[in-house]
Design a protein that fits this description.
Blueprint lengths: L1 E7 L6 H12 L5 E6 L14 H12 L5 E4 L11 H11 L4 E7 H5 L7 H7 L1 E5 L9 H4 L4 E3 L9 H9 L10 H10 L4
Parallel strand pairs: 1-2, 1-4, 2-3, 4-5, 5-6
Helix pairs in contact: 2-8
Length: 192
């Protein structure tokens, strides 16, 4: 089985994440996409995040009607901050019969050369890159690398930061979240 790993804090997961993941699983050679809920990114502050288990619960609700989309909490028990190269090793050990690939936005590819052991990641794993509107340019070695696949997924300009801010400001953003996720966030009084 070929699995695309979509890493993120998913604080919260929203329709943009689901559109991208579903597009990639339906229009590539991947069998499944797993949302890897990250407790702490080396590039993000932790203070604005919901508890790990709440973000995982929201992600589980998001994928419950999509059989090719799954969630993973594998990073919850790994040393922090979490680095993708370490997590990939754990995935391979836990699921030796799976082939894992990374899913990332074009904006992340532009900074990929700053990732811990990025050369080892590129040597051992394929990358599926979806378009994002962002500044800067992609390193030349990444724009033509045979293990990097550009996926022509729709560009979705919704961010979790925008969702959190809108909820705090009591804006109606119900169209940006699946109904079951909005209901859970509202009932739990998150982000207000």
């Amino acid at each position: 089985m070929k699995v695309g790993l979509f890493f993120g804090t998913f604080n919260p997961i929203h329709i943009g994440h689901l559109i991208i993941a579903n597009y990639i699983v339906e229009f590539s050679d991947l069998d499944e996409v797993w949302f890897v809920v990250t407790p702490q990114s080396p590039f993000k502050q932790k203070k604005s995040m919901l508890d790990n288990n709440h973000r995982l619960a929201i992600a589980n609700i998001a994928v419950e009607n999509y059989p090719k989309l799954k969630t993973s909490n594998i990073e919850f028990n790994l040393a922090q901050p979490n680095y993708t190269v370490n997590t990939l090793i754990h995935f391979v050990e836990k699921f030796p019969n799976h082939k894992f690939c990374l899913i990332m936005g074009e904006d992340n590819l532009k900074g990929f050369h700053k990732w811990k052991n990025y050369e080892a990641i590129l040597e051992n794993y394929e990358l599926y890159v979806y378009p994002r509107i962002s500044d800067g340019k992609t390193e030349h070695e990444f724009s033509t690398h045979p293990k990097i696949h550009k996926v022509n997924a729709p560009i979705v300009q919704i961010s979790s930061t925008f969702i959190r801010k809108a909820i705090q400001e009591r804006k109606d953003i119900t169209t940006m979240l699946p109904e079951n996720i909005w209901k859970y966030i509202d009932e739990m009084n998150f982000y207000k």
